[in-house]
Write a structure and sequence with these properties.
Elements: H1 31-36, H2 51-56, H3 95-105, E1 119-122, H4 125-133, H5 140-160, E2 165-169, H6 186-211, E3 216-220, H7 222-231, E4 240-244, E5 254-256, H8 264-279
This protein binds 2-acetamido-2-deoxy-beta-D-glucopyranose (5 copies).
Protein name: Carbohydrate esterase family 16 protein
Signal peptide: 1-19
Keywords: Signal
Length: 285
């Protein structure tokens, strides 16, 4: 199958596999920089490959030379919108800025054949963490609503520039990661926030699909895949779901690579599940 996917925006604190801007402070890049920028192998948050590299087979080198092209504009540590949450680091490019970069400097240069282009969106963890940790935010619900609106304004921007098939992934249950104890509200409060984010995301997706009947909206419950593994680790070949080890050579039996990022093994299971879903997708409408 020779489909070309222009895959855009995966979040989950992925490192910039494809370094579109290279420097968060200078949000521009030239066509030459864009088209010569290579995917650096094994530099994702899993320590190895991530789900999109596994699905596309685009592990390294120029995206344009991959059988299924992967154009990744995601950026580690980002939230959705700087107007709501300030960038965590001075190099962080928030999601709406990733979209703006794509629109201004990449959209007209990259392939996006109709019917052969899938745009993927996976975000929410950092927003839930930063809202949970922010004592000046008292109405979490209203904040999440505003956050999700900013999210879908960005989706609308990509649609106006030719991206018309969108896959949304639910935010995974990082409240079960070693990181959860560091969140101000504890694992339980963090779970509430993430569950609420996912409920609002799902409802907003349905509204977006109804408002935009000419676009294809796909929804994949990544959270369930994570929970299935965490609840039945042995079944999937894991024996450690509670600790993490960045330096360990043998990552196969571990769920967590860093305190909140899963190993490549988890990404492989996720990639298979997403591929299976895409073969027989259930559209949101
Ligand atoms: C930002 O990047 C562009 C394109 O690479 C370059 O022309 C410009 O000089 C840079 N600006 C700064 C302030 O570094
Ligand atoms: C990346 O990691 C995989 C295993 O996860 C390994 O097979 C591959 O050789 C590595 N690639 C590079 C270029 O290091
Ligand atoms: C960004 O942050 C790093 C470390 O936190 C610091 O060394 C650097 O000077 C900062 N850069 C700017 C432009 O503020
Ligand atoms: C906390 O939330 C307020 C809005 O209520 C925002 O202005 C501020 O930048 C946030 N701070 C952090 C560290 O996220
Ligand atoms: C998990 O399995 C690996 C590989 O067989 C082994 O080295 C490790 O000690 C086991 N860990 C636990 C917590 O049982």
């Amino acid at each position: 199958m020779c489909t070309r996917l222009a895959i855009l925006i995966l979040m989950f604190k992925e490192q910039m596999v494809y370094q579109a801007s290279g420097n968060g402070l200078n949000l521009t890049f030239t066509p030459e920089e864009l088209l010569s920028n290579k995917i650096v192998p094994n530099t994702t948050s899993s320590g190895g490959r991530n789900w999109l590299e596994l699905i596309t087979g685009c592990f390294q080198g120029l995206p344009s030379e991959c059988p299924v092209q992967l154009w990744d504009f995601s950026h580690g540590g980002s939230d959705i919108d700087a107007a709501l949450l300030p960038p965590h680091r001075n190099t962080t490019v928030q999601m709406v800025d990733q979209v703006r970069l794509w629109r201004d400097y990449a959209a007209d240069l990259l392939p996006r054949p109709e019917g052969k282009t899938l745009t993927t969106w996976w975000t929410g963890i950092n927003d839930c963490t930063h809202i949970s940790n922010n004592i000046s935010i008292t109405d979490n619900d209203a904040y999440l609503d505003a956050d999700i609106e900013a999210y879908f304004r960005a989706v609308g921007t990509t649609a106006r520039h030719g991206l018309r098939t969108h896959l949304f992934l639910t935010a995974p249950p990082v409240y079960r990661s070693p990181f959860a104890v560091k969140v101000r509200t504890g694992a339980e409060g963090y779970k509430k926030m993430l569950d609420s984010f996912n409920q609002k995301l799902t409802a907003r997706m349905v509204k977006y699909a109804r408002d935009n009947p000419s676009q294809l909206i796909l929804s994949f419950d990544a959270s369930s895949v994570f929970l299935d593994i965490l609840d039945h680790p042995n079944h999937f070949g894991f024996n450690d779901t509670t600790t993490f080890c960045i330096e360990c050579e043998d990552q196969e039996h571990r769920f967590w690579h860093t305190e909140e990022h899963p190993t490549e093994h988890v990404h492989r299971i996720l990639a298979k599940a997403v591929e299976k879903y895409l073969r027989n997708p259930d559209f949101v409408y």
